[in-house]
Amino acid sequence: MSEPAVDDPRVDALHERMAEHSLGGHWQKKRRDPNPKLVPHLWPWETVYSCLLESGEVIKLGGINDAAKRRTVNLVNPSIPDLKATSRTLQMSVQLVKPGEMAECHRHTAGALRFVVEGEGTGYTNVNGEQMIMEPNDLVLTPNWTWHDHQNPGATPLVWLDVLDIHLIGHLDINIHENYQDARDGQGNYFGNASQPVLYPDGFCRQRFGPIRPRNGAEDNRFLPYTYKWAEARAALDAMAEAGERDPHDGVLLDYVNPLTGGATMPTIHCRVQLLPPGEETRPHRHSSSTIYHVVEGEGVTTVGGESSGGNDMAWTKRDCFFVPSMDWHAHRNASKSEPAILFSVSDRPVLESLGLYREEHA
Ligand SMILES: [Fe+2]
Q: How far is the CA of 107 from the centre of ligand 1 (A)?
């Protein structure tokens, strides 16, 4: 963006001199708008999945720009393609671990979670020594600075959604990453391995920190490695649907809470799952958090935008992902008259809430 013409050479000279010294007048326009309005967007699963499988053929783990040795395809908001980001705070990507492969052990200050899409129940994420088995639609948390590696000892591909608060962490200048291989123990010896040892069986964290637990406290109970099993989430959705308990804006709605604090799933990311009964149409609302959805099952339409923008209909089907920006009105409709639709979603709501910036309006 060029500077508007000013009919005064003294002003031009001032602008030039300030620029030389990395200074700017508040009256000057930004050269480039770094904060364009994010747009709603839908990524059809068919396309995402075919690109992911193709990457499994042509992209070698640890190859181009891949210090983390992961094979992921990023969902990119069309408003900010240069940032390769789904939103300004969160990143959703899809990861593939082929049979016999491993994604090496590391840890980072970015908090992360996995929502399993495809797997036969033998693949797992090792989080701080617990072998967390990944069955379809399970949610696995790998919070800030927990060691994690992913293993697929099975015969079929393991595919999941990765969600990280990496863009928020980047804005805060605190993006630190460490590979297990290069880390040292208390005596200064390198760990030297690509994966960490399995120390605890699946379910260890649920037993230690779930609703029936020893009387203890985690060092910082906001950063809890944990797994939420789909069988339990689905049973709860069905029971609530049966009882007719519905949120007017989201249908049958469940929160994945931190079992120790009762609050958000993680300090920076909140997860929910909602069921829209057959034919359900929700009432519009909007809020200052932005949300990325994944269709667990069913098909429907999410309308984004108010009367002024005319509304943008995003028609979705099983496994599609879509984004609803902050402060955009939105409402969901289940297109089927006979089958429920289920949406898993992640949002940056805990960040907005902790800063006193969470707002919500109902139509
Ligand atoms: Fe990671």
A: 6
How far, in Å, CA of 334 to CA of 298, rounded?
A: 8
CA-to-CA separations, 54 to 44, 46, 154, 242, in angstroms, rounded: 16, 12, 20, 42
The answer on pLDDT for 299 being more than 70 is: yes
- Measured in angstroms, how far is the CA atom of residue 29 from the centroid of ligand 1? 38
Single-letter amino acid code for the residue at 21? H
More confident residue, 332 or 192: 332
For the entire predicted model, the pTM comes to 0.93
* Per-chain mean pLDDT for the chain: 93
> Which token pair is 84?
């390769």
- Give the up-direction half-sphere exposure of residue 218: CA atoms within 13 A in the CB hemisphere: 18
For residue 112, the CA-to-ligand 1 centroid distance in Å is: 7
Token digits of residue 80: 């900010």
* Centre of ligand 1 from the C-alpha of residue 125, in Å: 10
What is the 163 CA–ligand 1 centroid distance (Å)? 10
Q: How far away, in angstroms, is 288 Cα from ligand 1 center? A: 27
What distance in angstroms lies between residue 129's CA and the mean position of ligand 1's atoms?
15
Domain boundaries 41-362, corresponding CATH code? 2.60.120.10
Question: By the 8 A CB rule, do 124 and 192 touch?
Answer: no
Cα of 149 from ligand 1 centre, angstroms? 8
Predicted confidence (pLDDT) per residue in 107-146, tens digit: 999 999 999 999 999 999 999 999 999 999 999 999 999 9
